[in-house]
Write a structure and sequence with these properties.
With 191 residues, the protein is mainly alpha-helical. The protein is built from 9 helices and 2 strands; from the N terminus they run αααααααββαα.
Length: 191
């Protein structure tokens, strides 16, 4: 992550350079979203941008089901993996820990308050399930993800784009772009 934020590879093991980059990121961004607190992050984002719940309703795609997660963690302990990653990605862990702590200490209390956050997260999750999804069993192959242990959804009419596999969505966008090119420029596109 630090490389993505512009820290040169030669500085990835220099604590002073890492700390300086963390301070720069903190100064330049009003909110850093935390993946394992994705719903909370979206709600904070909603508040900062004056959005509605409709703007942040979402589905997790390419997410493993519970049984699959259990199988993976049965073979390797979380702490063993975390320790190895912490050593290998020391700077990224410094970045993560700084913003994870700030997320709970500053962002949530200042922007929302803990009680309001809990209520809003519950509302967002309920809204997602009631407005987008019919059932858990997938009848249509365009919603069945590439691997059987990934969660898929059957969507409510009008919300189909939310749950499509990436390749199906990309193909739909390409087809639409081709149609528009043909209409606008009156050209033929070779397959």
């Amino acid at each position: 992550m630090l490389r993505d934020l512009g820290l040169p590879p030669k500085d990835l093991d220099k604590p002073e350079a890492i700390q300086s980059k963390i301070e720069e990121v903190d100064k330049n961004f009003d909110l850093i979203m935390i993946a394992e607190h994705f719903d909370e992050s979206l709600i904070l984002f909603k508040e900062l941008l004056c959005w509605s719940f409709d703007d942040i309703t979402n589905l997790k795609l390419n997410s493993r089901n519970s049984e699959s997660k259990e199988r993976i963690f049965h073979h390797t302990t979380k702490e063993k993996a975390r320790s190895s990653l912490r050593n290998w990605l020391r700077g990224d862990f410094m970045l993560y820990e700084y913003f994870h702590e700030k997320f709970h200490r500053v962002y949530i209390p200042r922007i929302m308050g803990v009680k309001n956050m809990t209520h809003e997260v519950n509302y967002l999750r309920a809204k997602t399930w009631t407005s987008l999804i019919n059932v858990h069993d997938i009848a249509d192959s365009k919603f069945q993800l590439w691997k059987k242990d990934l969660v898929g959804y059957e969507m409510v009419e009008g919300c189909e784009l939310y749950g499509l596999k990436e390749n199906v969505l990309v193909d739909m966008v390409r087809d639409e772009q081709k149609k528009r090119i043909i209409e606008v420029f009156n050209v033929t596109i070779k397959p």
